[in-house]
């Protein structure tokens, strides 16, 4: 995008862009944080994209093409996105900012080490409204970056948002960068999912909720009509941030209320109309329920309920989810995977602040998981023939876990501390 060019190009190129703006009737400084320069830059971007697309089509390319994927979300960019085959964007939470050398310490998180759920969805609000009615939407990259201690939240957050918004695809960036990294254990290194067990655990929930369509939200789309003549530097940010969690949202030059009235309404808590997703960003709590996957984000000593799952974490906050392995509803599934996620870091990781938002040393393996526990209760159709097991990271049973049965309720305690190190996975089986 022109915004990226202005940020990173040479001074003489910036001067040429400013001169072109003035020659086309622009007034004042060529500052892309102002409406008129932003609109001019977007139109120039659209001309360039149209030329490139024409060249590719003339070469016989039939690939779907898009542009403006770098995270900028000014409303003016819709002028170019309107001619793309689909709309794509990239989402990172707490992306590392490197003080001296790229991908080396020291570094700090761009979002201060905080939870993007507490932040009301972060920039996903902008991405959601950047979707244009009638265009497919793809989140081409996503990652809640390590060492953010809340990154396991994305298991439910991304699964819920992608499902509610009825997006067409979401892709994690990235699995690994070398074949050696795939074949060997590695330190958690900001962005590589292969080296971060919490990224893998999160994707298991996202795949179930979104890709398997466990969380099928069929709310009608809410479209905010915008004018081609009025777009500018203002962000495509949901004017009321909780709209992200209610129904599919987007903008359009051609559809929606002709008056341009804002169609979104604010509520104290967020969630879908039928209660499949309910949350309170101020408290940092969330519940997601479907017939095949249920989960919660909950603080220590606070009971949370998601469908047939009741969770009470102890010692520390936790993300807990249960998903059917055999694709049956959880209530009568014969294999249920349960994840209990607290915090995970490398050994000997060092920070310069108590808030752990300024990383000075990446550390080494093995990974360390913060100690914690959670009392779990499941309401099942039948409690006969049940077994509960701790799992290792490959899914093997390593210990049978004691449990209690009362009527249709199965209860057990998930604890990080286990006989062979930390445990984050359990399996409930029925024979």
Q: Which range does the strand content fall in?
A: 25-35%
Helicity level: 10-25%
Largest sheet: 9 strands, antiparallel
As a whole number of angstroms, the C-alpha radius of gyration is 24 Å
Overall mean pLDDT score? 91
The low-confidence runs, each spanning 5 or more residues with pLDDT under 50, are none
Tally of DSSP β-strands: 27
Query: What gross morphology would you assign?
Result: globular
Helical run tally = 8
* Structural class category: alpha+beta
Distance between the termini: 57 Å
Strand order, biggest sheet? 8-9-10-11-14-15-27-21-22
Query: So what's the oligomer here?
Result: single chain
Q: How would you sum up this structure, described in words?
A:
By secondary structure, this protein is of the alpha+beta class. The protein contains eight helices and 27 strands. The chain has helices at residues 2-8, 11-23, 35-58, 78-81, 124-130, 154-165, 179-183, 197-211; strands at 87-93, 96-98, 107-109, 137-144, 169-172, 222-225, 249-252, 270-271, 277-280, 285-289, 293-298, 304-306, 309-314, 318-324, 335-341, 344-347, 350-351, 358-361, 364-369, 373-379, 386-391, 397-400, 404-406, 409-415, 417-418, 421-422, 425-430. It has a nine-stranded antiparallel sheet, covered by helices on one side. The longest helix is centred in the N-terminal third of the chain and has 24 residues, at 35-58. The model has no long low-confidence stretch (mean pLDDT 91).
């Amino acid at each position: 995008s022109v915004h990226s060019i202005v940020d990173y190009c040479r001074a003489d190129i910036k001067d040429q862009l400013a001169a072109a703006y003035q020659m086309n009737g622009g007034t004042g400084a060529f500052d892309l944080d102002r409406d008129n320069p932003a609109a001019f830059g977007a139109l120039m971007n659209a001309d360039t994209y149209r030329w490139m697309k024409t060249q590719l089509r003339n070469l016989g390319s039939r690939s779907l093409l898009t542009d403006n994927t770098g995270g900028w979300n000014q409303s003016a960019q819709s002028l170019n996105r309107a001619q793309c085959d689909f709309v794509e964007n990239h989402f990172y939470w707490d992306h590392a900012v490197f003080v001296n050398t790229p991908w080396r310490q020291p570094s700090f998180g761009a979002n201060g080490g905080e939870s993007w759920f507490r932040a009301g969805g972060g920039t996903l609000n902008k991405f959601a409204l950047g979707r244009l009615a009638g265009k497919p939407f793809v989140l081409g990259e996503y990652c809640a970056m390590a060492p953010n201690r809340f990154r396991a939240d994305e298991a439910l957050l991304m699964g819920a948002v992608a499902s509610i918004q009825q997006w067409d695809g979401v892709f994690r960036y990235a699995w690994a960068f070398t074949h050696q990294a795939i074949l060997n254990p590695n330190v958690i290194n900001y962005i590589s999912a292969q080296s971060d067990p919490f990224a893998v655990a999160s994707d298991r929930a996202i795949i179930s909720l979104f890709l398997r369509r466990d969380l099928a939200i069929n709310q009608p789309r809410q479209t905010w009509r915008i004018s081609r003549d009025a777009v500018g530097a203002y962000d495509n940010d949901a004017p009321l941030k909780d709209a992200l969690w209610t129904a599919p949202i987007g903008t359009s030059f051609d559809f929606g209320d002709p008056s341009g009235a804002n169609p979104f309404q604010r509520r104290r808590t967020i969630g879908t109309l039928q209660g499949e997703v309910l949350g309170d960003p101020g408290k940092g709590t969330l519940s997601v329920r479907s017939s095949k996957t249920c989960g919660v984000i909950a603080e220590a000593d606070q009971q949370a309920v998601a469908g047939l799952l009741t969770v009470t974490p102890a010692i520390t906050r936790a993300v807990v989810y249960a998903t059917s392995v055999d694709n049956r509803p959880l209530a009568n599934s014969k294999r249920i995977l349960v994840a209990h996620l607290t915090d995970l870091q490398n050994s000997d990781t060092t920070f310069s602040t108590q808030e752990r938002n300024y990383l000075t040393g990446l550390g080494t393996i093995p990974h360390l998981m913060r100690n914690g526990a959670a009392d779990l209760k499941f309401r099942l159709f039948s409690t006969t023939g049940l077994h509960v097991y701790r799992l290792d990271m490959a899914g093997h049973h390593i210990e049978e876990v004691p449990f209690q049965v009362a009527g249709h309720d199965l209860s057990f305690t998930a604890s990080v501390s286990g006989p062979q190190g930390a445990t984050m996975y359990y399996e409930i089986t029925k024979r």
